[in-house]
Amino acid sequence: MRRHRAARSDSDQTCKNGHAVPSGARFCAICGSEVTTPETTAEPTTVAPPILEDPPTRSRRWWRPWAIVVVLAVLGTAVYWFGLRTTDEERYVDALKAQHLYVQFGTREAAVTQGRAFCAKLDAGQEPVGYRSQQVAVKELCPAFAKGFTVVPTPAELQSQFASELRDKGLGGKFASDVAAAAFAKRTCSRLDAGGAQQGPAVDAVAVSVYCPKYSNGFTTLERIHVKATFGLKDSDPSSYFPDIVSKAGGCSGTSGYSDITAGREVLVKDGAGDLLTTTTLRAGHGSPPFSCTFDFSFTVLDGAKGGYSITVANRGDVHFSAAQLKIPGAVGLTLGD
Questions:
Q1: Which candidate among 23, 49, 194, 338 keeps its CA 20 to 30 Å from the CA of 250?
Q2: 295 with 285: CB under 8 angstroms?
Q3: What is the percent of the chain with per-residue pLDDT over 90, rounded to a whole number?
């Protein structure tokens, strides 16, 4: 019994009769019965349930950092823009004051509004030309248009400049007022714009230099010709009863056939085309009646009249002269009679 127990103890198999059978045998060596393998009862293993983790999900707060960034960017841009704009406008107003141009606007709001409006016109394609105050606006409010900007004088500046130059050239007394002078200058330029001859007296030349300088290079300043002339009556064989030249108030005058030749008679001066240039009158006659009587007269014309000049006394016909002849002292002497 002791041997069987030992064998059993060394074996992990028994037959159905309980005999120990060596490991790997299929039949019991004692009783011959089929070997059965003892069942091993294992203690049930307690398996801990798996810890289930929440599936990875997108944070519902992912947008918050980005929202903060966007808000800060918008606020920063607004602060920068309005701060810059205010700075530009302040510089603009200060520049106007420094150049004594602020008085043209009266208020800061008017100056800024007009400055912004002018920049808008330039942005829309307007030619970069304007007054000094508009140039200041361009430099401070829309500097992209500053390069190539052309400054032109204001109407008030033109009027002041024209009046000043007239005075400098001794022509200040030509007009009743600066406004009248400016109106004359504008008419002069309009005549040239319409194709008129680019010539005229000194006052015209000054007007051109200020109001329409594009004509200055081709404009000819015409010389004034001051003419001292005479008109004489002659009668080599006067009638004793009805003379044509008689004494009158210490002087003489025409009568009978010359009754239209008296002091105060109008004298017409025309150009070669028959256009009237100026008028004058005969002064009191002097001479030796009944044989002669001379009337003095004078006038001023501009050099350069087309076709020369013609002088008419009463209705006694035209007498023609060139500019060169008018310039010769004493060369203009008209005579009626023999």
A1: 338
A2: yes
A3: 62
CB-based contact 240:249 (threshold 8 Å): no
Residue 174: phi, psi to the nearest 5? -75, -20
Q: What is the DSSP letter of 237?
A: S
Q: For the chain, percent helix, then strand, then coil, each to nearest 5?
A: 40, 25, 40
Q: What is the DSSP string of 219-239?
A: -EEPPEEEEEEEEEEE-SS--
Name the helix (H) or strand (E) containing 141: helix 132-141
pLDDT tens-digit map of 179-236:
999 999 999 999 999 999 898 889 999 999 999 999 999 999 988 899 999 999 999 9
CB 5 within 8 A of CB 14: no
Cis peptide before 290 (omega within 30 of 0): yes
Residue 171 near residue 206, CB atoms below 8 Å:
yes
Q: Is the pTM of this model over 0.85?
A: no
Chain length of the chain: 338
Place of tokens 């004058």: 280
